[in-house]
C-alpha cells in the first residue's frame, strides 16, 4: 500500500520514476550505493519526528528513550566495526563531519594540509570555495605525475616549510590505499595532528580490505553511504580517546576534558542542532549489516570487480590514474581517447550508464569539462554483478566513448544495459 500514491500522486510518480531509473541504469558513480530494505524502512520511519538535541542520556528534550537506544546501538556498532574507542554518529554529512573535526583540532586562520581537489582530494580538504579554504590557511599537496600516487617527498617538504597544525589524508578520487603510516611519519616529524577522511573506502576499512587509520590518526571522518552502504550521513571516530591538549577544562570541576567531549560539543551545539534520528537509527541498521560475514564477501567482490574492470580498460588502451586500483574507484584519463569527461558523461548517460566527469591530476581542463571520468563498483556489486559483467560493462563503455555521437551505437548499448539490469533486479518490491 502506498500512502503517498493516494495523497500526492505527482510526487509518487516522481519517486517511481527514480526507482525505475535506479533499476534500469548501470550506476557507476563511485560514491553511490543501494541501501537494503531494512535501512530504507528505518530511514523512512517515525524517528524523523523526534527532536533529540544532545546525546543519549543527556538530551534537551523529553521522550528520547527509544532514539537513545538507537543512537547507542549506532555508536556501539560503529566502534566494533572500525575498532574505535569513540564514535559520533550525528553529523548530517561527510562535510559536517569534516567541519566538526577540523574546528575541534584547528583554530580558524591556522594552517591545514590536504590533497588538492584536482588530484583526488575533496572540497572540505581546503578548497578555496569551501568553508575549509575560507576558514583555514591551506597548503595542498598533489600526486606524483608519473605514479598518480601521493608524493611523500613533496608532502614532507611542504609540511616542513608550512608547519600545518593538521594534515588530512584521504580523498574522493584516489584509487589506491590511503598511506596512513607514511602520513603519520610526516605528521610526527612536525608535530601535526593527522586526520583521515575514509568516506570512500569505509566499507573496505570495516572489513579489513583496506588498512585501518585508527592506529595512526588523531581523528577519522567518514560518510556512511558509499562503500559502507548505509543511509546518507557522516560520522567521526577516534581509535583512542584522550585528554585534550588545548587546555579546555570542564567549567565546574576544572577537569581536563577529553577529545571526545570536544568533538561532541563541536558537532552539537557547535555546528548542528537536532540530529536526524531516523538516519542515525538507519546507520545502526547498516552497521549491523556490515558486521555480518556476508558484508565482507560483498566488499571483497567490490574490489574484485573494480580490479577486473581496471584490467579490462587497460587492455583497451585506457590510461588509468595510478595504473589501476586497490579499491572500488577507477579514475580514467581520457586524453588519449580524444573526448572530454563532460562529453563522455553525457554520452554514457544517454546509454543508461551513470558515471561522473572528474578532473585528473594536472588536468588542463576546468572542473566543468575535465579530462576524465570516475568509475566505481559499489552499487553494481550490490546488485550481484561479478567479473563477467565487468567485462561486458567495459565493452559497453568503450563503445560509447569511441562513438559518443552515434545514435545507433548508443541505442544498442542502452538495450544491452537494460538486459543486464533486468538480470540483476533492484528494489523490485517497490515497483510492484
Ligand atoms: N560527492 C562525493 C563523491 O562523489 O565522492 C564526495 O563528497
Report on the biggest sheet. Answer: 7 strands, mixed
CATH architecture of the largest domain: 3-Layer(aba) Sandwich
Total count of domains = 2
CATH topology descriptor of the largest domain: Aspartate Aminotransferase, domain 2
Low-confidence stretches: none
Mean of pLDDT: 97
Strand content is 5-15%
Shape: globular
Cα radius of gyration in angstroms: 22 Å
- Read across the widest sheet, the strand sequence of neighbours is 4-10-9-8-7-5-6
- CATH C-level class of the largest domain is Alpha Beta
Secondary-structure-derived class: alpha/beta
How would you portray this structure in words?
It is globular, with a radius of gyration of 22 Å. The chain has 432 residues and is an alpha/beta fold. The chain has helices spanning 3-7, 9-24, 37-43, 65-82, 94-105, 131-135, 152-162, 180-190, 202-206, 259-271, 277-290, 293-315, 341-350, 378-382, 387-402, 407-423, 428-431; strands at residues 26-27, 54-55, 58-59, 86-88, 111-115, 137-141, 166-169, 193-197, 219-223, 234-238, 319-320, 329-333, 353-354, 356-358, 372-376. The model has no long low-confidence stretch (mean pLDDT 97). The chain is 44% helix and 13% strand. The protein has 17 helices and 15 strands. Helix 4 runs parallel beside helix 11 (277-290), helix 5 crosses helix 10 and helix 7 (152-162) runs parallel beside helix 8 (180-190). The protein has 2 domains: 42-290, Aspartate Aminotransferase, domain 2 (3-Layer(aba) Sandwich), CATH 3.40.640; 301-422, Alpha-Beta Complex (Aspartate Aminotransferase, domain 1). Strands 4-10-9-8-7-5-6 form a 7-stranded mixed β-sheet, with helices on both faces. A 4-stranded antiparallel β-sheet has the order 11-12-15-14. Bound molecules: D-serine. D-serine binds next to loops.
Amino acid at each position: 500500500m502506498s500512502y503517498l500514491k493516494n495523497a500526492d500522486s505527482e510526487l509518487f510518480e516522481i519517486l517511481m520514476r527514480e526507482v525505475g531509473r535506479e533499476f534500469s541504469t548501470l550506476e557507476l558513480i563511485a560514491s553511490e550505493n543501494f541501501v537494503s530494505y531494512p535501512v530504507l524502512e528505518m530511514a523512512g520511519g517515525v524517528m524523523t519526528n523526534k527532536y533529540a538535541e544532545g546525546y543519549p542520556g543527556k538530551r534537551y528534550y523529553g521522550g528520547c528513550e527509544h532514539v537513545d537506544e538507537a543512537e547507542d546501538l549506532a555508536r556501539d556498532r560503529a566502534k566494533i566495526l572500525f575498532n574505535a574507542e569513540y564514535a559520533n554518529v550525528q553529523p548530517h554529512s561527510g562535510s559536517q563531519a569534516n567541519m566538526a573535526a577540523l574546528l575541534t583540532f584547528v583554530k580558524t586562520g591556522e594552517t591545514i594540509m590536504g590533497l588538492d581537489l584536482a588530484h583526488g582530494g575533496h572540497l572540505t580538504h581546503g578548497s578555496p570555495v569551501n568553508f575549509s579554504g575560507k576558514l583555514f590557511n591551506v597548503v595542498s599537496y598533489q600526486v606524483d605525475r608519473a605514479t598518480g600516487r601521493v608524493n611523500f617527498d613533496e608532502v614532507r617538504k611542504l609540511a616542513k616549510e608550512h608547519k600545518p597544525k593538521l594534515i588530512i589524508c584521504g580523498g574522493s578520487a584516489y584509487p589506491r590505499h590511503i598511506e596512513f603510516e607514511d602520513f603519520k611519519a610526516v605528521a610526527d616529524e612536525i608535530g601535526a595532528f593527522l586526520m583521515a577522511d575514509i568516506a570512500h573506502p569505509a566499507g573496505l576499512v570495516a572489513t579489513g580490505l583496506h588498512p585501518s587509520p585508527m592506529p595512526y590518526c588523531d581523528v577519522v571522518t567518514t560518510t556512511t553511504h558509499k562503500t559502507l552502504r548505509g543511509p546518507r550521513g557522516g560520522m567521526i571516530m577516534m581509535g583512542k580517546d584522550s585528554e585534550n591538549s588545548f587546555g579546555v577544562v570542564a567549567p565546574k570541576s576544572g577537569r581536563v576534558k577529553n577529545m571526545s567531549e570536544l568533538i561532541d560539543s563541536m558537532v552539537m551545539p557547535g555546528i548542528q542542532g537536532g540530529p536526524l534520528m531516523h538516519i542515525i537509527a538507519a546507520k545502526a541498521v547498516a552497521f549491523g549489516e556490515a558486521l555480518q560475514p556476508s558484508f565482507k564477501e560483498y566488499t571483497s567482490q567490490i574490489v574484485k570487480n573494480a580490479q577486473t574492470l581496471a584490467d579490462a580498460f587497460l587492455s583497451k588502451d585506457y590510461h588509468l590514474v595510478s595504473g589501476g586500483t586497490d579499491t572500488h574507484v577507477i579514475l580514467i584519463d581520457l586524453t588519449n581517447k580524444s573526448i572530454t569527461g563532460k562529453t563522455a558523461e553525457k554520452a554514457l548517460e544517454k546509454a543508461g550508464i551513470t558515471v561522473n566527469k572528474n578532473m585528473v591530476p594536472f588536468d588542463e581542463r576546468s572542473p566543468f569539462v575535465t579530462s576524465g571520468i570516475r568509475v566505481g563498483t559499489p552499487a553494481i556489486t550490490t546488485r550481484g554483478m561479478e567479473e563477467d559483467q565487468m567485462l561486458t560493462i567495459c565493452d559497453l563503455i568503450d563503445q560509447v566513448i569511441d562513438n559518443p555521437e552515434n545514435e545507433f551505437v548508443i541505442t544498442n548499448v542502452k538495450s544491452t544495459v537494460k538486459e543486464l539490469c533486468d538480470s540483476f533486479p533492484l528494489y523490485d518490491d517497490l515497483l510492484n
